[in-house]
Design brief:
Length: 410
């Protein structure tokens, strides 16, 4: 096509270098497009990688938060003995109310509360005019009986002499002998009555039946003393040694033996401990209280302990050999008493146990455990069989707490 024709059509012919320039521009555009696509692909890949990483982190965090961290404690054998602490009241080794056997008025008293007395020492004296009059009358009756017996004896002797001469009959002699025997019996009865009244009269002197301390005086001068009223004039206690009666629950009764040492403490005497021993046991369980009474003998040479005081008696018991678990490992559900053990794969195994004695911090397990289990402390109510758990390491504080619990249980 000629130049004129191109001019007519408005088409400008290409120069010599324009096709190359267009080709370069096309290559540049393709290069830019490739770069943009690469950048978009890199951004998309980065986003996918970031999302995958976030998903893995979220999954790991969710799994970590889903773990149930628990503290575990082993079941242990009760190789060490337990100490049973029970309340008791001190009593004098011999403690007796002193009453009057004779009736009358209190003439005087010689000992007051807190006085130490010896056996046979005078405590009080009564005025007994009626008993004195009865004794005088009995003495007169005894004299009459003695006179009658002497007359009967003389008559019998004379009639025996007459019988030898055959002056009287045998019947009359037998009557005289019978009269003498009767008079002798009357004299013996009069003597017995006099001795009785003298014995009653001796009771107007109230004396100490044993050595001890007067802990109570209930009378004063001029009081009317009636022996039938059962009123105690004094209360006398022997304070060295002392007795302590303690009721041991049935679960521990078989572990208490005669001669076993015990420790007695009183809250008011915090710095002192008193050693005693089991003197005797009842040997039977009281059906009402389901306990066995034991008696502890306690020396009290310095009179530091007072009769009637409230004390605590610590009785060391021999080990029973059963398993002990912490009290906070127990679960109480419909099936009964359970514990949650952790196996080798950190999965929960719920085991039913039969419990024995409760020591507060620990409890005996009679059946249901082998002894090598790891038990979960304070198990949650939602814990179920087969749950995956993560045992937490025991902190030093936890070890100290367990040691303190072990000491408290022992």
């Amino acid at each position: 096509m000629s130049h004129d024709r191109h001019s007519e059509l408005g088409i400008h012919p290409l120069g010599e270098g324009e096709p190359q320039q267009r080709q370069q521009m096309m290559r540049r555009a393709k290069l830019v497009l490739v770069v943009v696509l690469l950048l978009l692909a890199a951004g998309a890949a980065r986003t996918l990688v970031s999302r995958a990483a976030n998903a893995r982190a979220l999954e790991a965090g969710t799994a970590e938060r889903a773990k149930v961290f628990v503290r575990v404690a082993p079941a242990r054998s009760s190789s060490e003995g337990q100490t049973l602490t029970l309340p008791g009241s001190l009593q004098g080794y011999v403690q007796s109310p002193i009453s009057a056997r004779a009736g009358g008025y209190l003439k005087r008293w010689t000992k007051d509360i807190g006085a130490e007395v010896k056996k046979g020492e005078l405590l009080a004296e009564l005025d007994t005019p009626e008993i004195d009059q009865q004794l005088s009358q009995a003495l007169a009756a005894r004299q009459q009986a003695a006179s009658s017996m002497e007359l009967a004896r003389s008559s019998m002797v004379r009639w025996e002499a007459l019988r030898k001469k055959d002056a009287v009959s045998q019947q009359e002699l037998d009557e005289r002998r019978s009269a003498f025997a009767q008079a002798s019996s009357n004299l013996a009865a009069a003597d017995a009555n006099v001795a009785r009244l003298r014995q009653v009269e001796s009771f107007k002197r109230i004396v100490a039946p044993f050595s001890g301390i007067i802990t109570r005086r209930n009378v004063d001068v001029g009081d009317l003393i009636d022996p039938g009223a059962g009123r105690a004039l004094f209360v006398l206690s022997q304070t060295d040694p002392l007795r302590v009666y303690v009721n041991v629950p049935q679960a521990y009764a078989n572990l208490v033996k005669l001669g076993q040492p015990v420790t007695v403490t009183q809250s008011e005497l915090r710095a002192r401990k008193f050693e005693g021993k089991v003197a005797r046991t009842a040997g039977a369980i009281d059906a009402t209280t389901r306990s066995m009474q034991i008696e502890v003998t306690l020396a009290n040479a310095d009179k530091a302990l007072l009769p009637g005081a409230f004390v605590q008696v610590a009785v060391p018991l021999k080990p029973s050999g059963t398993l002990l678990v912490a009290a906070d490992t127990l679960m109480f559900r419909r099936d009964g008493s359970l514990v949650a053990a952790v196996d080798g794969q950190n999965r929960v195994q719920l085991k039913k146990v039969r419990l024995g004695r409760n020591f507060g911090a620990t409890v005996e397990v009679l059946d249901g455990l082998r002894g090598d289990e790891k038990l979960i402390l304070n198990p949650p109510d939602s814990l179920a069989e087969g749950d995956q758990v993560e045992p937490a390491p025991v902190q030093p504080k936890d070890r100290q707490d367990k040691s303190a619990d072990r000491k408290a249980a022992s």
